[in-house]
Every structure is written in C-alpha cells, then in structure tokens.
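If you are new to this repository, start here. Below is one unmodified record pulled from the training split, so you can see the exact layout before writing a loader.
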Amino acid sequence: MHQVLAATQDPPQHPQGCLFTLAPWPAALPPSPAVGASLSPCPHVQAPMAGTAAGSGGQPQRVSMQEHMAINVNPGPIRPIHRISDYFPHFYPFAKHTLRTPEPHPAVTPAIRSAPQPQPDPEPEGDSDDSTALGTLEFTLLFDADNSALHCTAHRAKGLKPPASGSVDTYVKANLLPGASKASQLRTRTVRGTRGPVWEETLTYHGFTCQDAGRKTLRLCVCEDPRLRRRRRALPLGELRVPLRKLVPNRARSFNVCLEKRKLTKRPKSLDTARGMSLYEEEEVEAAGEERGRILLSLCYSSRQGGLLVGVLRCAHLAPMDANGYSDPFVRLLLCPNVGKRSKYKTSVRKKTLNPEFNEEFFYAGPREELAQKTLLVSVWDYDLGTADDFIGGVQLSSQAGGERQRHWCECLGRSDCRLELWHPLDGTPLELSD
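And here is the target side for that same chain:
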C-alpha cells in the first residue's frame, strides 16, 4: 500500500512546524481548481475537497500535502503561446505596409487586432536619425582664384523640420567668418510652401583671396522668411559651417551636409551699452585685427592720353558704420604731392550697402617718370547728412609701399596701355586727406 505523509496539527509538541503522519492515498485526485484560486500555503488551513471522503465524526477533511503540491504544479491544460509580433504590426518606412493578423484562438483573443494604415507624407522627410533631424543642404563651392571670387551655389534642402507644422517659406543666408556679419552676408530668394525647397542660386563673394581661403569659414543657414509669417526676425531652421582651407582653386566641390542647431556666441562687453540688447549674438565677430573691407582698383597708364587712368570698381565686406548695420560708402582719391584741385576726386555715394559697386574711372595727367615719384591715396568713407563723414578704411599705392601695393603701382607704370586690376585690403589708420 502506498503511504504518504498526512498533516496533523499539534502545536504544543511542535511549535516550529507541523507533524506529518501516514495516511492512505486517495483513489482519485480531485480536479484542479482554476488558476488564480485562493489557496492556503500552509496545511494548517482546512478546506473541504470534493473528491475525498469525509472523516469520522463529521469533521471536514484536511488538504493533504500531495494534493496541495498537485494543485500548484498543475494549473490546467497548457495552450501554445503566440508570438508578440502577431499582436503588433511592423512598419517599414520604405516598403509597402502589410499587416499579418494571426488566426484567433478559441480561448485566447489578441488585444490588438489591427492597426490604422499610416498616411504617406507627400514631401521627403529625410532619415529619422538624430544627425539628420533638422534636414540636409546640398550646395557647391568654387574658388575662382583668377578673378578672386568665391561662388556658393545653393541647390536644395531635404527633410526640413519647421518649428510649426505645415509648409514653410525658406531661404539660405551665407556669412564669411571671422568678420563682420553684415559685411559678408548674402542670401538667396525665398521658396514658399515646401519642406524640400530648390533654389539653384549662386552667391558670389568678390575679393576672396588665397589668404581668406586659409583662415575663413563659410557659414550657411537655412532660415524661415519672417516677412511672410509676420515675424520680426528670421527664424533659423538649421546651419552648417565649412572650413574653406580645403578648397582647391578653380575646382568645384559639391557638399551634402546635415544641418545643425544654431550656435550662439557671447556678445563683446563693448556692445552691451544699449538697453535691452541680447547678451548673445548669432554671428561671430573677429576679436583682434577687425577687417575694414577691401577695394578693387584698376590702374592703366595711357600713352595716347599721356596720363594715369585710375578705376574704382567695387568694394567688398566694408565695416558697418550706421546704426542699421550698413553704410553709405563713397571713395576719395588723392595724388600727392598735391599739385592742385585736379589731384582730388570723389565717387558717387552708394546707399545702404557694404558691398558697393562703383565702376568709375579718373584721370591723372603727367609723364610716367613724374608719376612714379608720387603716391596715390585711396580712402573709403561713410556719408552722413549734416555731420562729418565716417572713415571706413584706406590704402596707399606708391613705389615705397610694400607687398602687392608696390607691385601694382610699379607694374602699371612699367607698361603702357595695359589695365591691371587687383584687390587691396583697407587699413584702419586714417590717411592725411584734406578737402
């Protein structure tokens, strides 16, 4: 006969546990209750069982340890477990959305039977990676060393993320750093109503030399047009910066770069005098050796006219002198030693610009040997109505000057009827010029 341990209660003799005695094995185990039924973990708790015989004296039958273990380990029939992928659909951003619905089990019903089909975006959103969260910008750079120019062609942007939902009106703004932001600021036209704008527009920086390529950085910023949104300032959607030292002269290079968040730099203390002025500014300002700009001059000794032709073609990246961030520039010329009023000339005034284009020519009569002993003083001024004009910068050309200034002057007087054009940086030291 099979013998098992039956639990009996005897607290006085066994205070730390239960006393087990032999009891006959029941003929048939009762059916297991449903999972989650309340069961007593200790055999001291009495519970009637349907499949066991009643004890003598009408006392309720105790639950045996074997029955208790059988209940815990046999919760009921085991059903197959469905895969979690059967209840959650898969999404592939570049493939057709297909959902596979599992066959419902008679006892188990999935919590999620189907999912709504996602609506396709009519415009490219770009990748979902953090590095492309603001979108990408495609552009091409070309350093034209022969003409001292930098060409930046803005092609298109993809996956722009505007601050508000819906379409945006965007343009590209370019700056050369370090330097005054207003002096080198160029922008494209505004493309309306799309997050994938196409500009195909070229921005040209005149007077860009090899020295500039070695130390300057081009900052491109994709901005939202504030005039079309009734806002005061342009909201940048993202920016990028490209060091220009890696450019090969006369060879175009294409870029497809991810946009980054706008970088703010602390404004110098000298600019914190105005009340309400922000302590941070978007553009960098060169701390030491601030640039005053540069001027493109043309020199030619005419043998037919018997004198020197001086052409003032254009200026670039002039320092702003007015409160609006611009200047009203004009150029003064003086050939000294002074031999009369015919040695002084002045160009017309160009309003509200830092990159004026003059294309004006002046004539100084005299033999070549006499002109070689003279000095040409060229200065750029900001015109102010009712007050004294502000000096922006100047350059001095003579046989005693050094570098490119001396070479330009000597080569011009050494040849006849040969026009020589060259860019010259402006000095911040005022020249001795008198009206």
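Two things worth knowing about this chain: The helical segments are 65-73, 210-215, 368-372, 404-414. The CA atoms of residues 142 and 252 lie 4 Å apart.
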